[in-house]
Specification:
Blueprint lengths: L2 E5 L3 E5 L13 E5 L1 H11 L3 E5 L1 E2 L3 H12 L8 E2 L6 E5 L8 E5 L15 H5 L4 E5 L1 H5 L1 H16 L3 E5 L9 H11 L5 E3 L2 H8 L15 H14 L3 E11 L2 E9 L4 E3 L3 E3 L8 H15 L3 H15 L11 H8 L10
Helix pairs in contact: 1-9, 9-10, 10-11
Amino acid sequence: MSKIVTLGEIMLRLSPAGCSRFVQVDNFDVIWGGGEANVAVSCANYGHDAYFVSKLPEHEIGQAAVNALRRYGVHTDFIARGGNRVGIYYCETGASMRPSKVIYDRAGSAIAEADPCDFDFDKIMEGADWFHWSGITPAISDKAAELTRLACEAAKRHGVTVSVDLNFRKKLWTKEKAQSIMRPLMQYVDVCIGNEEDAELCLGFKPDADVEGGDTNAEGYKGIFKAMAKEFGFKYVASTLRESFSATHNGWKAMIFNGEDFYESKRYDINPIIDRVGGGDSFSGGLIHGLITMPTQGEALEFAVAASALKQTIPGDFNLVTTAEVEALAGGAANGRVQR
């Protein structure tokens, strides 16, 4: 299988049990996750050599984060140790018309304050097939943005395919700051993944579709995909298309463009959603696996959409599914019958 590298922050997620509210509980469940860490876990589950690059404190909480990755087969060789704290986020799971809520407590985390000397990116990228990052990482801090650029440059020196999940987070930066950092980084990117909001806020592209009103007609995305591919030279542009009927009931499909042809996936009705955090990351992980191992972009996209549909039935950030389980769903086994 392939060597896949991801760069980002793994965080300690503290969540009330079930759908309880922050203000009514006396304890929180401990869950580990974070965009690129989630992608690394997915890729490891599919049999790849997945390496997660980050910086974590030397204390026991930092070690707990490292152990969480090792548990699922992610290589931690390139995680630098040092700094003072692990980023934290609190996540309250919504239900019906009440949305989920995230509160960040991640300022001053180890990776946010990491320096280029903490990483030998040429060594990290040596022999790698794929490098994945998301817009969350350069949003963490100016130092993290510089690390992202250096990692992308090293990936290109070593002939590594680079993918990005645009992942705009309004609690981390403004659209003006995002575009000033993200647009120059697109020169390194081969595969661009992002929904309609990400494309507009990170890159300045707006689809002709009323997403808030539930209009996810793929036709509205074709113009934006073509424009993005033309401006930045992407080999593939992909987007998930989520119909949000409530916090626990979504329609889910995706679309991909390879510069010549568009492909729209089958649609899944996810009801009830158990935990949608990490849904986009599981799509990225599935798409990376699909584009590496499958002959067509259509097959790759169907795998990615099935993988991300399954993730939203699993508590926590990580998508804990096997290749066989994803392929079974992509092949039509969606009735949820007990497997005996």
